[in-house]
């Protein structure tokens, strides 16, 4: 089995497969069936008649519809138009079911027709409307059938072929049809006549008539068409609604145009008349020789600027514009004889020319429209078939009056605001530009009429007015807003080409964008010296914060603990040895201080015996040992000498118990009245000072204490002969001093304080607010020594107290020196580390 | 409510103050009445404080918080002491004296002794932590005072006890203490006036 190598993947496949079994790529071309059925036609081979009817089913639907419509229209036209029927007969002679079946038959000398025109001829326009049928009805069918190939070729000529002769009266009545002559003379001689109500001038003609281009065509159309609304050649195979819509749209425009047509046409005629001498020979002989090929429509020289524009734009638009009769009319009118193509020259020299001369009147009067209709209709059909896929109706571009007008205006006018749709651009590009049209701007064609710089003289210079619409559409109009000089004054303005007038569109230097380069920013931090210094300081601070600090090790903690334990051990050892040994190494001094002496004097001299004495216990239990030792000698001395009636009062919660403890330890067996705890601090003191009975009315058991015999006669604080305040706090002593100030009268206030509170109460002693004070062991020791030899606790504590103070002084001194050295060493080590 | 508290405090303060300056008639009687009320309220405040202390530590015991064992000891001690104090003969009875002699006085005296050890240790470490003039002055003053008051077998140091100590006590100690006392008195006066005029409200309210 033969194998086919897949063109895509290269793998072999059986030859009976259409698609690759590996990659699904097509193995056989689409035209393979045709190529198999018939061998390809080589150069020089005579074409053979092909029966393509069998391929009709494979035709695209649109093509089938066109063919069907063509058949139907042909049938319809055959009823009222014998010429069409004659054409049908010609068509009927051709093999049926052909691909081009139903279309207008081609003459034998079609090779004389350029390819572009042949391509446009998709088929004969079967749109034989009634008007055209009536016009053609004047032509005998036999003549149509008997027309030579040359005549048939003339049928392919568009109407514009004959229009140049029609547009010029000077061409002569011989070369013009009667109908055209009549119309021209009518319009030229009756400028003030009202335009036809039925819109004798198509609006597209009217618009173009402003430029004086197609007025002659319109006149010819008027002669051809009875109603004259739509040129017959513009009518499609079927009179669809679009035509009717076009008519409706063009109605007002026609009215307007009809009012302006006449003078414009006159001007055009006048121009053509004045240019009679400029008519080329071939055109001049056009009236004499009816046979002309469409190739004769290749004008390269134009007579005015509009013609040049037409040529330029036709070059761009291509075949699309070739469907516009107006262009070719003008081209015909301005084409030079030298530029007449060879085929046209040859046609003019053909032997059948005289035959055509005989047909000349008929051609211009009756047949000419028919011939004129052929090409545009075919063109329309071809345009439809070629551009419908692009979504843009070619009819709107080239054929339809409205759309053609609009599109032509867009395409030909130098209007920047012309709107060119994408479909239009695609349609333009989709068309192949004919050779003759590409040569329109050949040297010597444009300079004759173009006022500006001709392309021939300087091909690089392009006038903006000559820009085709699709080029204008490519202009960066959106990016450049007139009036807003975005590019800046420094940018040069374009002087040539499509970008002429724009500024800053192209870069100054080729390949380098003007300002599209992104702005570069330095990544280096811009900081002043102060900022850098501050940043360094911040960095150092953060570094110091993040630097781990040395943790106090256990050795350090243990060292400190050992130090504390050592101090405690030393003190404990000293105090314990002193107390346990019972030594009396240190003698108690006999000298007493002044305040102590005052207190002792009061007790000895001023205190009245058997008088009430208030003893206030205002100290904490922690100071009980000290204060009991200090107060005991004075209280004992007073008890021995004066036998006072003691009233005990406490301003601290533990005071009541401490007072009991004091009396039991120092004055066991001595009577006393314990009032207990007096709350309220200063308020309580004030209340008790002002009215002792109301401040402390009863005992805890509810007994009225003030009814006791020891307390008889006491109603206020001044009733006590002396107040003995035992305190370890300055605040407490101050409170009593302040609250009793001015209320004591003759009552003496004696203070027994701890060693730490004594110096703080010294000012009150000096001020006289305290009558006498005994402070600490130093103050109580001398009293104890003079207390008739009664044993006291001071002597027992004295050595321990003395050794403890001495040891403390020694430890602090030695320890301070050692600490100073250790601290200095630590700082030195730290400095070394840093 | 806050206005009532402020008004009560201000009126009471003004009346007591007027009673001090004008101890006559009804002003004196009103001042005494207010003082007695204050004394009663102070006693009740102590009772309320005791109740609050019990509740707080009961809560710690119920929730078994950390060191709740000490709360148990505190509650037991408070209840026992209260019962001993309420049982006749009351505070003057032997049981309360025993608790005082066996627990309160030794405990507080021990703490005072520890304070002495701590002060000695701080003095030793002073120059290790900071070396400046203030530290040297502080340490030198302490040492001189200690040496001046320290009884020695031969008595006190003659120079220090006779010259340095009185010199330190009279101008420095007495003068400094007088200034401190005057400052405290002025502060107390200002505080009293602020409370009297409602600027400070230690009794509550902002």
N→C terminal distance of chain B: 12 Å
- Characterize the main sheet of chain B: none
What string gives the helices and strands of chain B in order? HHHHHH
Overall residue-averaged pLDDT value of chain A:
65
* Quantity of strands of chain A, as a count: 8
Oligomer category = heterodimer
Largest interface: A-B, 70 and 57 residues
| Tally of individual helices of chain B | 6
CA-to-CA gap between the ends of chain A? 96 Å
Quickly give the structural class of chain B.
Answer: mainly alpha
Radius of gyration of chain B: 25 Å
Enumerate the strands of the largest sheet of chain A in spatial order, edge to edge or round the barrel.
Answer: 5-4-3-6-7-8
Q: Helical percent range of chain A?
A: 40-55%
Q: What structural class do the secondary elements of chain A suggest?
A: mainly alpha
Mean pLDDT of chain B: 85
Share of residues in strands of chain B: under 5%
Largest sheet of chain A: 6 strands, parallel
Radius of gyration of chain A: 69 Å
**Low-confidence parts of chain B:** none
Shape of chain B: extended
């Amino acid at each position: 089995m033969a194998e086919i190598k897949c063109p895509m993947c290269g793998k072999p496949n059986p030859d009976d497969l259409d698609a690759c079994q590996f990659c699904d790529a097509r193995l056989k071309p689409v035209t393979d069936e045709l190529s198999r059925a018939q061998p390809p036609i080589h150069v020089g081979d005579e074409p053979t008649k092909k029966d393509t009817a069998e391929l009709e089913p494979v035709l695209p639907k649109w093509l089938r519809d066109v063919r069907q419509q063509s058949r139907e229209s042909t049938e319809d036209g055959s009823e009222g138009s014998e010429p069409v029927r004659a054409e049908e007969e010609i068509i009927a002679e051709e093999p049926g079911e052909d691909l081009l079946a139903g279309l207008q038959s081609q003459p034998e000398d079609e090779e004389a027709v350029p390819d572009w025109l042949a391509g446009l001829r998709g088929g004969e326009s079967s749109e034989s409307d009634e008007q055209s049928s009536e016009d053609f009805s004047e032509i005998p069918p036999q003549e149509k059938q008997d027309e030579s190939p040359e005549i048939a070729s003339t049928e392919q000529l568009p109407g514009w072929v004959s229009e140049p002769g029609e547009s010029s009266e000077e061409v002569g009545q011989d070369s013009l049809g009667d109908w055209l002559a009549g119309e021209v003379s009518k319009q030229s001689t009756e400028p003030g006549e009202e335009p036809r109500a039925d819109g004798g001038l198509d609006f597209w003609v009217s618009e173009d008539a402003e430029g004086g281009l197609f007025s002659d065509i319109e006149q010819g159309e008027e002669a051809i068409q009875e109603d004259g609304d739509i040129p017959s050649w513009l009518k499609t195979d079927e009179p669809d609604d679009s035509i009717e819509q076009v008519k409706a749209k063009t109605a007002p425009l026609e009215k307007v145009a009809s009012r302006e047509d006449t003078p414009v046409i006159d001007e055009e005629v006048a121009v053509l008349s004045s240019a009679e001498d400029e008519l080329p020979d071939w055109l001049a002989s056009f009236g004499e020789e009816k046979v002309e090929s469409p190739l004769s429509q290749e004008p390269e020289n134009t007579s005015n600027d509009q013609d040049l524009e037409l040529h330029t734009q036709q070059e761009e638009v291509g075949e699309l514009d070739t469907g516009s009769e107006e262009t070719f009319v003008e081209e015909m009118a301005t084409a030079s004889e030298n530029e007449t193509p060879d085929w046209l020259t040859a046609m003019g020299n053909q032997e059948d020319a005289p035959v055509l001369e005989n047909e000349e009147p008929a051609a211009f009067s009756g047949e000419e429209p028919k011939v004129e209709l052929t090409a545009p209709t075919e063109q329309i059909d071809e345009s439809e078939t070629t551009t419908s896929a692009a979504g843009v109706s070619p009819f709107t571009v080239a054929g339809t009056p409205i759309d053609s007008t609009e599109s032509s205006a867009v395409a030909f006018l130098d209007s920047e605001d012309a709107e060119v749709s994408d479909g239009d651009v695609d349609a333009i590009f989709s068309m192949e530009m004919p050779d003759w049209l590409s040569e329109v701007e050949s040297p010597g064609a444009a300079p004759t009429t173009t006022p500006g710089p001709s392309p021939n003289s300087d091909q690089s210079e392009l006038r903006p007015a000559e820009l085709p619409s699709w080029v204008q559409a490519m202009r960066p109009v959106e990016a450049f807003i007139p009036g807003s000089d975005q590019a800046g004054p420094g940018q040069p303005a374009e002087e040539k080409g499509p970008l002429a007038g724009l500024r800053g569109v192209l870069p100054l230097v080729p390949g380098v964008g003007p300002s599209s380069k992104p702005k570069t920013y330095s990544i280096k931090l811009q900081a002043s010296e102060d900022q850098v210094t501050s940043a360094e300081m911040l960095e150092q601070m953060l570094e110091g914060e993040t630097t781990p600090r040395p943790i106090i090790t256990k050795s350090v903690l243990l060292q400190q603990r050992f130090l504390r334990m050592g101090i405690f051990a030393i003190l404990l050892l000293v105090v314990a040895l002193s107390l346990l040994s019972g030594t009396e190494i240190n003698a108690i001094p006999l000298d007493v201080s002044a305040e102590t002496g005052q207190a002792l004097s009061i007790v000895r001299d001023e205190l009245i015996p058997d008088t009430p004495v208030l003893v206030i216990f205002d100290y904490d239990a922690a100071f009980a040992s000290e204060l009991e030792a200090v107060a005991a000698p004075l209280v004992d001395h007073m008890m021995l000498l004066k036998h006072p009636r003691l009233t005990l009062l406490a301003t601290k919660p533990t005071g009541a118990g401490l007072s009991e403890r004091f009396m039991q330890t120092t004055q066991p067996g001595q009577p006393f009245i314990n009032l207990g705890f007096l709350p309220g601090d200063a308020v309580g003191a004030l209340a008790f000072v002002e009215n002792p009975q109301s401040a402390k009315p009863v005992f805890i058991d509810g007994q009225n204490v003030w009814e006791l015999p020891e307390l008889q006669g006491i109603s206020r604080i001044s009733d006590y002969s002396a107040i003995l305040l035992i305190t370890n706090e300055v605040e407490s002593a101050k409170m009593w001093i302040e609250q009793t100030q001015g209320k004591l009268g003759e009552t003496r206030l004696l203070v027994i304080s701890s060693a730490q509170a004594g110096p703080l109460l010294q000012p009150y002693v000096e001020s006289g607010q305290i009558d006498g004070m005994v402070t600490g062991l130093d103050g109580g020791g001398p009293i104890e020594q003079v207390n008739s030899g009664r044993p006291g606790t001071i002597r027992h504590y004295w050595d321990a107290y003395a050794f403890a103070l001495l040891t403390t002084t020694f430890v602090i001194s030695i320890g301070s020196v050692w600490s100073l050295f250790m601290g200095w060493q630590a700082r030195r080590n730290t400095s070394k580390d840093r | 409510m806050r206005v009532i508290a402020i008004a009560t405090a201000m009126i009471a303060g003004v009346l007591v103050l007027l009673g001090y300056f004008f101890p006559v008639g009804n002003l004196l009687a009103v001042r005494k009445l207010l003082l007695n009320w204050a004394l009663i309220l102070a006693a009740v405040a102590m009772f309320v404080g005791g109740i609050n202390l019990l509740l707080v530590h009961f809560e710690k015991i119920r929730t078994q918080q950390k060191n709740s064992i000490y709360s148990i000891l505190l509650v037991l001690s408070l209840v026992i002491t209260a019962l001993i104090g309420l049982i006749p003969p009351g505070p003057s009875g032997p049981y309360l004296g025993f608790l005082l002699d066996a627990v309160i006085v030794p405990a507080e005296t021990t703490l005072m002794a520890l304070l002495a050890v701590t002060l000695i240790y701080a003095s030793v470490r002073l120059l290790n932590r900071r070396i400046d003039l203030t530290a040297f002055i502080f340490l030198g003053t302490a040492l001189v005072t200690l040496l001046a008051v320290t009884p020695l077998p031969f008595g006190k140091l003659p120079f220090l006890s006779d010259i340095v100590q009185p010199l330190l006590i009279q101008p420095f100690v007495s003068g400094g203490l007088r200034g401190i006392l005057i400052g405290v008195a002025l502060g107390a006066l200002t505080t009293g006036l602020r409370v009297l005029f409602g600027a400070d409200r230690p009794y509550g309210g902002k």
